[in-house]
Specification:
- It comes from Campylobacter fetus subsp. testudinum.
- With 962 residues, the chain is mainly β.
- Among the domains are: 1-177; 185-213 and 241-246 and 253-402, no CATH class.
- It has 4 helices and 77 strands.
- A hairpin with a 2-residue loop joins strand 32 and strand 33 (347-361).
- Helix 2 (551-567) runs antiparallel to helix 3 (574-590).
- It is flat and about 125 Å long.
Length: 962
């Protein structure tokens, strides 16, 4: 029951039309606190008014107040938790201190809250499933208006405020503090396990979900003495006559992160195989704020407006005014990890991969009419998009910046298992079949002279090989990649004005009509996409390999190699061809016609490679009608820019500099392998007949290579009608092209047109060392033994310098203009498609060409010899490429009324080619063997007939006949 003292206190302060329904009161604490607990809704009253002393507290816990005409509360503080205050009329709350609403409902025709501080939020609690989630989201609904005014901070979290009547109004105001509208987070988790036979899988998920605040009315006004913050929340103006107005010292419209963590594990087994997999994935996704208006959006800050990963959309116009404005992207992050292992009859394999990435979540600001960004100091737009019918930016400094995506991937693998390969090749054509459990590969492919088993000619006598064995492989690969997302400006017209600096390098601009760029100085910073890779691996193997070799195969392969060079436009070198014919003749006479080899090999191989590349972005500018670029103080610098319009006009207070975008790449590779082989051979020789032998071989090989490449992509100005360029000082084209119907130039000082050179070079070095201990038997000889060794060295170098695209001016009609000082053409071109126009040059006309070249050569030499007089040489000579040339300047328009330069603007590059084809020479014999072959043909023998006590040595096969 309500105590008499409380009854008397209420009765003295309540209007006579108020009816109090008695109920148990949880507690009434002296005269300063009134706690309404478990009181049913107070109903059937015309007016409900509570007036309490300034320092008193009204608390409502799971209670409700209802006044059919109005509800008015005046108190020191008000705390409402899981409660409601409702009226068909006005709800008015005045607190001299603090107002707190938690999971409460307020509704009336008008809702007015005045307090020193206000906190509006929603209670989070754990539900039956164990998830942390909202308990009865706080909602404030004023049919015609909601007005919340505080002296200090106004905080709204995970709550909804609405006004639904026509011309409705929401006013959120902090006279001396901040207004913050932000999200909260709910969390949930799940776990599942499934078992089917010998397969067991488990999965767990943890989620952190954004719970946004929502503000909605025909008109929404937010004002703060200090900061106005909107974090992962939504504000909407629902009327075509309405607006969103935000005014503060600083305005922050930002995103929040929504995260998910997933872990999976799977185990399966069968009589022949066991698999185990586990993986984890963690994502953090940008959830931006949203401001939408059916009419206008106005954001004003005396200091800074900062927009991050959020969307602003106005059906009419959007206006942002501040000292500084920054429109930034948000970031979505991902981290994944996976491990897998497999055991089966053919081997064991284990792999792991870790990936971390961050990707751009762009901010978007759009208006169907005008979009205006006005800053007294600086406007930064990073990885974000601006779109309006009229898109206007005005500031002291404007920076259009590209945002960056990043990915880091690390992969490790470890495996031991069976492998098998089979290869057939002859005359430069063949087929290969490969299987490797450790590498998880199984394929077939065609072979040619570039990827064949003959190793580019070093083993030109090999025509068939097959192997099977067990290998242990360990590899590690790391990849780091960065790409860029350019900002975008779109509209029917785009106008950017900066009294100081304008940087357009990180943006793309597109307008259906005009683009006007005006600044004290205009520049274009470049953003390079980069990629680096490094890999390390080693292999241990034990294998059985069968090979078939023949000097006849060597002869056929070398003929095929020469024909292939001819098809590539390289004439065979007669000296190499002659030596090939001689060496093949000797090989056929002094070696087995065909030999089969069985090899048992233990081998080791180590490989390491690194590569890097970078490519600068291209700024795209597209205007349906006119593109106007002007500077009022300094230079205009266009780096890596592609501009298109009907008409292009450039006016620079100082210099105009147009530079090409640059890309570059480099790589290096190191490879070392060694093996020990026990080999059995069987073959047929035209003199010795059947031959069998055995040998033990040691082999080691190493190689190192590196490449480097630099290329340019020219800046281009393309106009359907006219290009007009006016500079007070110099105009410099360093890798640039200007294309138009007419080109008009007014250059205060010097005009330079410079073409740029693309370069590439590569180097490769290798070395080989081997040794053999052998013995053999033949059908008419008794074997002896020998020791032999082999050493080999090789190199290959290439160097190329070319002009892929010459700089210059190209007009369908005329090129006309004035150059105040010198005209300098470095492989530059002035071309009129009708050979018309005139350029008045006050001082000198300077022209020069650029030398170009392409060079490539190399060779590998392997020399072998033994304790007998046998020896062998394998020489593989690379194609010799030698091209020299030049890129020349040319002009087919008049310069000072005459044509003093080359007028052939279509054939400005020339070259001389003195290349020739390489080839392979494979030579193996001995002096005695050659004599035996010649005498055999004559019907004699180089040695006298021996008795049983004499001995004849065959120095090639290292066999001895008694």
């Amino acid at each position: 029951m309500v105590s008499n003292s409380v009854k008397q206190g209420l009765a003295s302060s309540l209007n006579r039309n108020f009816a109090l329904i008695e109920s148990n009161v949880k507690k009434a604490v002296n005269s300063r606190d009134l706690i309404l607990s478990s009181i049913p809704d107070i109903v059937n009253s015309q007016l409900f008014t509570i007036n309490i002393k300034k320092d008193d507290v009204v608390s409502s816990d799971k209670g409700g107040l209802v006044g059919s005409t109005a509800v008015s509360i005046d108190t020191g503080s008000l705390n409402s938790s899981l409660s409601s205050i409702s009226s068909e009329g006005q709800v008015s709350i005045n607190a001299s201190d603090e107002v707190n609403f938690s999971s409460s409902q307020l509704d009336g025709s008008e809702v007015d809250i005045n307090a020193n501080r206000a906190n509006i939020n929603t209670i989070l609690a754990v539900n039956e499933e164990g998830d942390l989630t909202s308990v009865s989201k706080t909602k404030i609904d004023g049919e015609s208006s909601v007005n919340i005014n505080t002296s200090d901070d106004l905080n709204i979290q995970n709550s909804d405020i609405t006004a639904s009547a026509e011309n409705s109004q929401i006013n959120l105001n902090s006279q001396n503090g901040d207004v913050t509208i932000k999200n909260d987070h709910s969390t949930s988790s799940s776990f599942t396990q499934e078992e089917i036979g010998n397969n067991v899988s488990t999965s767990s998920t943890q989620s952190d979900t954004v719970l946004s605040s929502n503000i909605s009315a025909d008109n929404v006004s937010i004002s703060a003495k200090k900061d106005a913050n909107v974090v992962s929340s939504n504000i909407s103006s629902t009327s075509q006559q309405g607006s969103i107005d935000i005014n503060a010292q600083n305005v922050n419209i930002a995103d929040a992160q929504e995260s998910v963590k997933i872990q999976n594990e799977e185990y399966s087994s069968s009589p022949t195989e066991i698999n185990h997999k586990n993986s984890s994935l963690a994502t953090s996704t940008s959830q931006g704020s949203s401001l939408t208006s059916q009419n206008t959006i106005n954001i004003n800050a005396s200091n800074e407006v900062k927009i991050t990963g959020s969307n602003i959309q106005a059906q009419n116009s959007a206006n942002i005014n501040a000292e500084n404005i920054s429109v930034n992207n948000g970031t979505t992050k991902m981290a994944s990890s996976s491990q897998a292992s497999n055991v089966q009859v053919t081997g064991f394999r284990q792999t792991s991969q870790n990936v971390e990435s961050s990707t751009v979540a762009s901010s978007n600001i759009s208006a169907n009419n005008e979009l205006n960004l006005n800053a007294k100091e600086k406007v930064d737009v990073k990885g974000s998009n601006l779109k309006g019918k009229e898109t206007n930016i005005n500031a002291n400094e404007v920076n259009l910046i590209a945002a960056q995506n990043q990915t880091n991937t690390q992969t490790n693998s470890l495996g031991i298992g069976i492998f098998a390969n089979a290869n057939l090749e002859l005359a430069g054509q063949g087929i290969s079949a490969n299987y490797s459990y450790a590498n998880q590969t199984a394929n077939t492919k065609k072979l040619d002279s570039e990827n064949g088993i003959t190793q580019g000619g070093l083993r030109s006598d090999l025509f068939g090989a097959g192997e099977v064995g067990v290998e242990f492989i360990s590899t590690q690969k790391i990849t780091n990649e960065a790409t860029h997302v350019s900002s975008k400006l779109e509209g029917a017209n785009i106008n950017v004005n900066s009294s100081n600096t304008l940087d357009i390098g990180g943006a793309n601009l597109s307008a259906s009509k005009d683009i006007n760029l005006k600044a004290g100085e205009i520049k274009s910073t470049k953003y390079a996409d980069t990629k680096t890779q490094s890999s390390t691996g080693f292999t241990l193997s034990v294998k059985e390999k069968l090979e078939s070799v023949s000097p006849l195969a060597s002869f056929a392969n070398q003929i095929s190699q020469n024909f292939s060079s001819k098809e590539k436009g390289l004439n065979p070198n007669l000296a190499i061809t002659s030596v090939q014919v001689l060496s093949n003749t000797v090989n056929i006479l002094s070696n087995n016609i065909v030999t089969g080899k069985s090899n048992q090999t233990i081998g080791f191989k180590f490989e390491q490679s690194q590569s890097s590349s970078s490519k600068e972005n291209i700024t795209q500018i597209s205007a349906g009608e006119n593109l106007n670029i002007s500077s009022t103080k300094g230079n205009i610098t266009l780096n890596g820019t592609n501009a298109n319009a009907d008409n292009i006009s450039i006016n620079s207070k100082k210099d105009l500099i147009m530079n090409a975008a640059k890309s570059k790449s480099s790589s290096s590779n190191l490879s070392i392998d060694a093996s020990i082989t026990n080999r059995q051979t069987a073959g047929y020789h035209i003199i010795d007949g059947g031959v069998v032998g055995n040998e033990v071989e040691f082999f080691a090989n190493g190689s190192y290579s590196k490449t480097k490449e630099d290329k340019f992509s020219n800046t281009t100005l393309n106009a359907n009608n006219n290009v007009s360029i006016e500079t007070k000082n110099d105009t410099i084209l360093n890798g640039a092209n200007v294309n138009a119907n007419n080109v008009n130039l007014n250059i205060g000082k010097n005009l330079e047109v410079n073409s740029l050179v693309d370069t590439s070079n590569s180097e490769k070095y290798g070395g080989t060392l081997g040794g053999t201990i052998s013995g053999a038997f033949s059908s008419n000889h008794i074997a002896t033994g020998s020791v032999s060794g082999m050493v080999g060295v090789g190199y290959k170098r290439s160097d190329k310098a070319e002009v892929s695209s010459q700089s210059g001016f190209d007009a369908k009609n005329e090129i006309n203009g004035v150059v105040g000082e010198n005209l300098s053409l470095k492989a530059g071109i002035l071309n009129s498609q009708i050979s018309s126009g005139n350029l008045e040059v006050a001082k000198k006309v300077l022209e020069s060409d650029i030398k170009t070249h392409e060079k490539s050569d190399g060779a590998t030499v392997r020399v072998s010899g033994g304790t007998s007089k046998s020896f062998g040489v394998v020489i593989d000579i690379e194609d010799h490429i030698s091209k020299t040339g030049s890129a020349n300047s040319a002009s087919n328009i008049n310069i000072n009324g005459g044509k003093n330069l080359s007028t052939d603007t279509q054939n400005t590059q020339s070259s001389t080619d003195s290349s020739w084809a390489g080839g392979t020479i494979n030579f193996s014999t001995s002096v005695t063997k050659v004599k035996d072959a010649v005498n055999n043909i004559r019907g004699t023998n180089s040695n006298p007939t021996s008795n049983t006590n004499t001995m004849h040595v065959n120095e090639t096969t290292e066999t001895t006949r008694l």
